[in-house]
Amino acid sequence: MSRESECELARLGHPPVADGDAKAVDQARRTVLRAADGVPLEAAYTPWSGGGDAAVSAVPVIVVAHGFTGALDRPALRRAAGAFARHTAVVTFSFRGHGRSGGRSTVGDREVLDLAAAVRWARERGHRSVATVGFSMGGSVALRHAALCEDAAERTDAVVAVSAPARWYYRGTAPMRRLHWVVQRPVGRLVSRWGLRTRVHTEDWDPVPPSPTQVAPKIAPTPLLVVHGDRDAYFPLDHPLGLVRAADPRCTELWVEHGFGHAENAAPDDLLHRIARWATGALAA
């Protein structure tokens, strides 16, 4: 880790982790990335546990985008990263306003820049093929990133959206009504900051970014997997169905998981391993 990255981690309140430290979480290599607008982002790299002496360029990498109120060191994200690392290398990071990253959350808008920075870092480490896996808010970010990113160094080669919304401002469920209160009301943002450890931007979207459904047709020819649970308390099944209808059927797949709830917190280990196998298979193909 560079001295500059160590200083940045210390400034964000994150102790640097030495590359050779046996106690490092998941043997992760930690750093601080910079989004295109300058926001610092904490990030970690976990090598493939079964990689052996394989050249890095020959190993795919999964870049994981967490949901709202998630973060690099939250147990649910660490569990997902650990499952993915059984199949390939993994990059995790905290979106702006989350964890020890800087800035404030824009709840899926400028977070596309954060994911692009993480993909760029994965490629700078030598990986030639990259898949993005996003959960909930991170799923909407992964969809928009796959559709809109034009820089070859920041593009993804396959994308998985888990528990992602299809459209903005959805208030059809109680959890989503609570979430809108959190992000749109001053008191709610205080609750988010101190109770959920997530700092939310005080300004409304201007302009409103295109929704996941609007950008879905532009993802092709990148392989797309949409995963959703039939017990998702946030977004009912019309959301994944809408995404799949909008996307190119030649490169899009839908999994409706029986008994699965919402995002990384509820994802069973078997589902995480199947997602990793799909991602690595899509990259190999």
Throw out a few tags for this protein.
35% helix; disordered N terminus; eight-stranded mixed sheet; Rossmann fold; alpha/beta; single chain; 285 residues
Question: What's the helix and strand layout?
Answer:
Blueprint: H1 3-11, E1 29-34, E2 40-46, E3 61-65, H2 75-84, E4 89-93, H3 111-124, E5 130-135, H4 137-148, E6 158-162, H5 174-184, H6 186-195, H7 212-215, E7 224-229, H8 238-246, E8 252-257, H9 263-266, H10 269-284
Parallel strand pairs: 3-4, 3-5, 5-6, 6-7, 7-8
Antiparallel strand pairs: 1-2, 2-4
Helix pairs in contact: 2-10, 3-4, 5-6
Task: Offer a concise description of the structure.
The chain has 285 residues and is α/β, with parallel strands linked by helices. It has helices at 3-11, 75-84, 111-124, 137-148, 174-184, 186-195, 212-215, 238-246, 263-266, 269-284; strands at 29-34, 40-46, 61-65, 89-93, 130-135, 158-162, 224-229, 252-257. Helices cover 35% and strands 16% of the residues.
